[in-house]
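Lab manual, section 2.4: Encoding a predicted structure.

Procedure: take the sequence of the chain (170 residues), apply the prediction step described in section 2.3, and record the output as structure tokens. A sample record is shown.
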Amino acid sequence: MEKEKEVDTMEATQVVEGGKFLSFFLGDEEYAIEILKVQEIIGLMSITPVPKMPDYIRGVLNLRGKIVPVMDLRMRFNFSAVEDTEETCIIVLQEEGYQMGVVVDKVSEVADIESSQIEEVPSVGVSGKSEFLSGIGKVRDTVRMIVDVHEVLFNVPDEVLDKSRKAVAE
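Recorded output:
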């Protein structure tokens, strides 16, 4: 019962509940995603481009017979593009029955972040990226920006989603 009150309060302030998070890097910045939204982590593999997609959609990949769209998270966050390295990988996310691969520079670890260690995203200081964040986690002496998977995957123009779904269906 007490936990339900805590969740209601957090939803009102857009802060996520504590738990296990997969942390990863984009450049020097460390991010985290709720582990329950992560289906798997795979090495970079062949991605087929899809015409007329925005810059942050790299294309689609064939993952054991299933076509999965792939988003470049650096580009989604308006970071400059960099060359892929041997640490570059794809995190396959699942949200509301929808799968999407996201390309990240490198995966770090799975970490426990308690609710008391998560704060709201400040309205200044994370310019241009705050719409994709649901909180800021403090782990030991580091800060991890917690990605709002729903916003990253679904806060896109309708025509982009329609094209992506059409490509997946073909």
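Check your result against the sample. The domain at 2-169 is CATH 2.40.50.180 (OB fold (Dihydrolipoamide Acetyltransferase, E2P)).
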